[in-house]
Fold these 4 entries.
Entry 1:
Amino acid sequence: NSKDLGKDRWTCFTGDLKESSDQEATLELDLRRAIRSDEFFLVYQPQVNLRTQEVTGIEALVRWQHPTRGVLSPGVFLPVIEKTNLAAPLGQMVIDKAVKAASELEKMNVDFCRMAVNLSPSHLKSGLLMNDFIDAMTRHGVTPDKLKAEVLESVFLDETSNHNALLLQELHDLGLHIELDDFGTGFASLTHVADLPINGLKIDRSFTAKLLTDQKKEIVINHLIHLARSLDINVVCEGVETDAQFDRLRMMGNFSVQGYLIARPMTFDHLTDWLASVQGDIAFNGV
Ligand code: C2E
Ligand code: MG
Ligand code: MG
Ligand code: MG
């Protein structure tokens, strides 16, 4: 009867909850170990201007080379990272590797514009972020004009938003570019954008995915492109997967795109091969 069913469901429910918090605790221990033993690496995805095909940026994305589970995506472990005190150590590592990659590309004379690093909200809160950038730039001899930082619009909206905005302003003053990631999925209003220390908007891939089937998405993208142009900020449209999407976007303006159609996120070696193939006329030392 229904009473028994309810009881079963309850048992089952508490069982699952316990299991998931156990799993989370295990994952946290595993992550601590992984940070100590340097199991994280970055993959790189290019952003290109859809008119000129120039590379206008490269986004660094973190991966975990797990000893038994294979390569894990950030979706699996970032939620736990954000809840613990691991965001700053992981973030520091990501910044160091991304800046090092930028330095290597510069040595190869590759014109990649800026290397983009995703900033973790907890790392922002930690107060260590600025120093981590300065340390990495000093260590690898990279100037801020080769770097940009991607932040979620939520960092400007929660209770630490004032602190975050000041910190991002400092990074911006130093010469880094700041871009709003996944734009359109949060609650940042368009008027808000004008007051923030940002150089660019990344239009979330949920808009791109429905560009050809949902006219409202097309209207929003159009609007964002025009807004960005009038505020003199850059646009990157995320998640471009098909020629049809590319062609439609190309009709809408002059901006950058990123997605599987252009290139999937790649290891550093694949990235340099890819860059050599699209920038064949640029001098490559030793590639
Ligand atoms: P994001 O910054 O919005 O990055 C874009 C995500 O979309 C990446 O997933 C990328 O692999 C994926 N993607 C790129 N092109 C396409 C496409 O054409 N179609 C589809 N379906 N997906 C595409 P990934 O690497 O799994 O990263 C997920 C999220 O994790 C990122 O979203 C970012 O918020 C976060 N993240 C990644 N790396 C880092 C990092 O180093 N630090 C921090 N704090 N967060 C990171
Ligand atoms: Mg990003
Ligand atoms: Mg994004
Ligand atoms: Mg995202």
Entry 2:
Amino acid sequence: MKIRKDKPGRNDPCPCGSGRKYKHCCYGSPERAVEDLKTRYARKYNIRLKAAKDIEGIRRAGRLTVETLDMVEARLRIGMTTDEINALVHEFTIRNGAVPAPLNYRGFPKSVCVSLNEEICHGIPDGRVIAEGDIVNVDVTPILDGYYADANKTFFMGSPGPDARKIVDVARECLRLGMDMVKPGNTTGDIGWAIQRYAETNQCSVVREFVGHGVGFDFHEAPQILHYGRKGDGVPLVPGMVFTIEPMINLGKRHLRILENQWTAVTVDGSLSAQFEQTILVTEGGYESLTPYDL
Ligand code: MF3
Ligand code: CO
Ligand code: CO
């Protein structure tokens, strides 16, 4: 007869996913173990695990991020300029007691990134007019009470053609599948693996030069979240990690170039590119999106 085991043994791997033995981790003293994990992740990976009060702060910033995206979606019109989107985001952010993180970040001149069609990311709002059939990515990052949350969505203008429909659907599903990999015991590499497999199975490509990132205390923290790669690579996920997943998916080849403005990445082959991003917290049981919207 098999011994039924609903509790881990002292020598089993700790259920918190730390990769250490239970007796050296959460056994007996979960509080000390969590403190210990914090120190270990800081030293080994430069990852700053978030405490309950930090998570509440990022969750509040995340709520504002999603409200900002909803507000933009409701006001987006054919004929609008990308500068008008910038003004909407800037004013909404300030009115809600926050600061737009992109503004003056490493010299970025505006309060939001708006990337159209073959633009992959870091589009700078200007006088360009949004046209019927465009796909428009809006990437929003407020700082609220010192906490950052980062999310983006790609919108259709008018009725999308088959190419626009396809790339937006694939990019959205890539984020969903990436999020599904998030739980203690899995690694950052598992996220990238799931995304790359889906994108390439659907004859699309994954941008490599830009990655997801730790977020919360700062705009971009460790670790990097690659949107491609091998299962089991990277950092083991543990509760308290907060990072973005933000796959940039191209309809053609993955290669990019940067425009003269030194910021905007576009596909070399001119193919459409789409992206979805959320800020994700690793929990004991899996994950919680701190910028939740339906995918
Ligand atoms: N929001 C982007 C990201 O997802 C970063 C934009 S940096 C900026 O990481 F300066 F362009 F705003
Ligand atoms: Co990001
Ligand atoms: Co972003």
Entry 3:
Amino acid sequence: SIKKQFDQSVRFFDEELLYVLEKQKYIVDNIDRAIENDEVKVYYQPVFSTETGKLCGFEALSRWIDSKYGFLSPGEFIEVLEKYRLIHKIDVHTVKRICQDIKRLKDLSIPYVPVSVNLSRLDFELCDIANIIETEIKANDIPRHLLHIEITESVLTENTKDLREKIEFFQSQGYEVWMDDFGSGYSSLNVLKDYNFDVLKIDMLFLKDFESNPKSKEIVASIIEMARKLEIDTLVEGVETKEQYDYLKSIGCNKVQGYFLGKPRPFDKKLISFIAKNADSSAARIKQIVPP
Ligand code: C2E
Ligand code: MG
Ligand code: MG
Ligand code: MG
């Protein structure tokens, strides 16, 4: 009967909701323990230059490998950690791990490759993230131009003077600041006017219907042309096919990232030998040398 079906779907909904809420509570209660026990890992996804066809860096992406829930992706824990104002715990841990990993490459005499870290707007409120980054960079003797900071477009919408000053401070020190998820938010163009980003990361949403919707192709081409006029480098994320790669190269997109080029991987022997084989040492292009 309809009533029975209804009761069943309500119960199913309740169970789903309960599961999600329990998981969120678990995340909040266990974040410290997970970081301490090294269950929060940094995975690295390669970034390729379309100009050289070579590896030119990585993006650091967090993964939580939990004894109870198994493999947790950022989609499951970033938002809840932001909600409970705990996100800086992951980001501080990630910055430390990135610096240690770059140091390991250095000790192995493998060419440097830059790494981008995703910061949350809240990191600036919840801790002195700039100071923490400086400390880690100095402790591991890493040139600042090897660490890029990704800030997502949506956090820049309320154009506060404070955040702009912090971004400008990072850049004056020699870090690159990249705008993430461009095109997915509301005030993209306004933000381009007010900040000087080193790289614009164009959201993968335009690639979703790339083959079927000619408008998507034109939009991406227009963003890239505009960025070129503003002297900002471009990167398209979520590149999954050779056709997409070839098109992006043909319209002058500088960098690409996506499953076609490589999935995020842990920092292990395989990754180290991949870097040794593919790294283009000139990728750590020095815009401005500021000693650590
Ligand atoms: P994002 O910074 O825009 O990262 C790109 C996301 O796209 C990653 O998802 C990556 O795994 C995924 N991706 C890359 N290539 C492809 C592709 O070809 N196809 C598809 N379908 N997906 C692709 P992930 O790792 O799940 O991260 C999601 C978001 O969570 C990130 O988006 C970033 O905003 C946030 N995030 C990840 N790690 C951290 C972190 O340590 N701290 C903070 N604050 N945020 C993080
Ligand atoms: Mg990112
Ligand atoms: Mg992105
Ligand atoms: Mg994204």
Entry 4:
Amino acid sequence: LKIAVLVSGGGSNLQSIIDMADEIGCSIELVVADRGCYGLERAAEHGIEGVLLDRKVYKKNLSEMLDEVLRDRVDLIVLAGFLSILDENITNRWKGRIINIHPSLLPKFGGPGMYGMNIHRAVVEAGERESGCTVHYVDAGVDTGEIIFQERVEVKPNDTPEDLQKRVLTLEHRLLPQAIKNIAMAH
Ligand code: GRF
């Protein structure tokens, strides 16, 4: 299965896919970032083509440019800590071939503005007893596509958002590769 991984940050989810690519049965054809980020460095370190489509340059044409770059090159687009919202044209054209990982139990704590530490802060402040992460297909909405996998973690009474983020991230690093593996096997 040929995949593109889209990143905006540290790329720890990308790293877990790189580490498990053979076991998953996928080949990472390229990494695309919407900003300068360590995720692009990781691609370079592993000899994987990296493409920067700066969101400040492309603005509303970012999705169009993504489609140009990815068309005919990959079977699956993996959003791994990617922060730009893809528009309906690309999510329709790639329907069923874009997945995203979100660090909460969707539909809770999802939607615009809910990303990264904001999520874990909101979960802790809401006094939730559990959280987790969700891998889902990307549709035209934000964090609203069909759910593929979801796994839970406990929220401990005196957890800080950072404690929770660490616990959830460990889970993400297992769940996303597993989801890609399942898609690769069915491909
Ligand atoms: C993390 O908040 C992760 O939960 C989410 O995107 C953020 C960055 O992840 N999926 P990564 O280290 O760039 O993969």
